[in-house]
Amino acid sequence: MRKLFTGRTAALGAAAAALALTLSACGGSSGSSPSDGAAGGGDAPYTVAKDVSLTGSATFDKIKSNDKIRIGVKQDQPGLGFKDAATGEFSGFDVEIAKWIAASLGYDKSKIEFKPIPSANRESAIQNGDIDYYVGTYSITDKRKKQIDFAGPYFVTGQGLLVKSDNTSIKSEKDLDGKKVCSATGSTPIQNIKENFKSAKPVEFENYSQCVAALKDGSVDAVTTDQAILLGYASQDPDKALKVVGEPFTTEKYGVGMAKGDAALRHFVNKLFTDGKDTWTKIYDSTLGSTGTKVQQPAVDDYK
Ligand code: GLU
Prior knowledge:
Blueprint: H1 9-26, H2 58-66, E1 69-73, E2 76-77, E3 81-83, E4 90-91, H3 93-104, E5 112-116, H4 122-127, E6 133-134, H5 142-145, E7 148-157, E8 159-164, E9 180-184, H6 188-196, E10 201-205, H7 208-216, E11 222-226, H8 227-236, E12 242-245, E13 252-259, H9 263-275, H10 277-286
Helix pairs in contact: 1-8
The structure holds glutamic acid (GLU).
């Protein structure tokens, strides 16, 4: 399985720089990015389906009776799930994946309610029925699969490290002894640090942007989470004072979180991913991949 953004640090730097260009080019744009379209018109690479029937999906029945889709997302992860403070618009790869699913279920952008939910609250939001599905850097794990189901994976990345640009002591995960390492509560990276890096000092916040602020003010030494997320922070840092170091040291497969037992919805989304490779590529190319970094769409794992 290929990982995103593997390669040397120099390559990571190049990828981050390219991502920066992309993100600034797309930031606040009202142009032709898929986030303007699609599920809301425009030139998105997917159309709003008509007369969708999805027998046996309790989630779809609820969507129909509410006449809207409530989607859990992240709001502080540039390039993946990001809310523009000025316009209130959500953008990024995950947000486009979420809108593609909604469009395929027959719901355009005007019928989507995006609900920002931090890492630790995802399973409960799905179990409580607060959201219909969740798309936000959500790794498929056996532990989580005891509480909810996942469609996908639709993307693969791995845990990485973000430090200040002038840091010379942390070059990889081998250099974390005695270091304050920040991640989000309830995430796979904080769990990995606690379980497998016993000499590191874990620091937790609800959201990664709080970790990034702590890194910048010197109260932690590193931020750890998926490299795809960290590259967004590095490239969007207004002071250009952050860098991603090392290689990804886990494999994180992103899934769409949904209610446990809704096999009809899970199969629907898995079929969408399997049949919609061209759409996936267009979404990827216009968001995370607009730097020119090519990755393969992962094969869906249609577990029964
Ligand atoms: N993919 C990891 C996870 O699901 C880290 C990113 C996140 O917290 O959303 O825990």
